[in-house]
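Chapter review: from sequence to fold.
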Amino acid sequence: MPVAPAVRAMCPTNEITPEDARILLSRAQADPVWWVREILQAQPWGKQAEVLEAVRDHPRVAVRSCHGAGKSFVAGQVILWFTYSFAPSIVVSTAPTWRQVEKLVWKEVRASYRRSRVPLGGNLLPKRPELQIVQDQWYAAGLSTNDPDRFQGFHEENILVVVDEAAGVPEDIFEAIEGVLTSGHARLLLLGNPTAIGGTFYNAFRTPGWKTIAISAFDTPNFAAFGITEEDIAQGAWEEKITGSLPNPKLVTPEWVADKYVKWGPTSPAYQARVKGEFPAEAEDTLIPLAWIEAAMARWEDAPTGEPVEIGVDVARFGGDKTVIVTRRGRKVMPLKVYAKQDTMETAGWAIEERRASGASRIKVDVIGLGAGVVDRLEEQGYPVSGINVAESPVDKERFADLRSELWWNLRELLDPNPKVNPEPVALPPDDELLADLSGIKYKITSGGQIQVERKEDMKKRLGRSPDRADAVVLAFAPVKDSGFIFV
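The token string follows.
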């Protein structure tokens, strides 16, 4: 019996009677926190323990969490507890991308399996996320979400489905999962950052029959241990409250939250979702949904590069602004290069260096302000450069108020994750400030029925920062041919 080693470890003598096994197995089923602590030698903190107990008690559990709260860790503990405490059982886990399946939850499964106080038994496969107890009858496995048919054919009395980063999982996958949850002891656990307004994960917090749990950064050990509140962050009083080492430096820290409070602002969608663990209050005038941006960053590592290779340069205009150089290879944006306090000649030099390194076919520069000098220098040196004045008239004058609006809307459409609309959406590098820039921009419809995206200066006044990173990405995807704009 695969739980025998665990039973032996808990038994006070070397002799294990059937009654010993029955009692201890019953305790494992009744007390997942005890099992995780005693067998896996892990120490789930308050909210993590609440998740374990919720899965024990409720058929459907949804957990919305801030960034860095250890949700993938607790998912791994739930998978192992359920697999070994109920015989036979089938456990299926998934996430929006294959990398997230392998590198997040199953990384935790493997680490906890190896850290176990006693050998757990079974066969943890080395090359794919699967733990076999009895082949095809008793196992846990990670599945990708590219095909709903993968979720068919799972039938067992004890079955658990774990969905990590649930806000980014397609709805047809949730429909397929429903066909799995038909047994007498079926459990569904959804975990994720609350980024998407709509869909199964969002609706779980508004539908009867779900046990819901919310985890804010201020609930986590590094805050709770010192009584650090959001008011402390706002007033800059958090540092004086830290009187010792952080209980768990791997989890979200007060320093990180304080940084995001200043850079993002407490009302930004990024702060609401990634710090407070709340669904963002995205208004109808939000240009790009936070969920689209999160999805673009989640697929970045696995996204292929392609053609064309082009560079966007947003040149700093004011003291606190940054010059940002972005290279995109096809629909994959490479890590951003950010410079402070550069003059036009230095900026031109960095753009030339980036062009040499990437082999880009074109450099596109915002010519308003200091950018004109950069364009002049690049033209003088014979480089393929397009100066873009976003205040000029758009190509589609009936639909857009100005070229800035047209270019931003172009990026919006390229980020749309709906495969029917956009079969190859843009992939963005994980970058917290880029995420905040893109999710913070707003738009309106003019009296003439045109789309008008918020001006850079207006966003800076509203949020206290300039969206330099986002503007550089917009430029990298600006549809140009020679010096003219071609939208397809």
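Two observations follow directly from the output. Confidence is low (pLDDT under 50) at residues 483-488. Residues 98-115 form the longest helix (18 residues).
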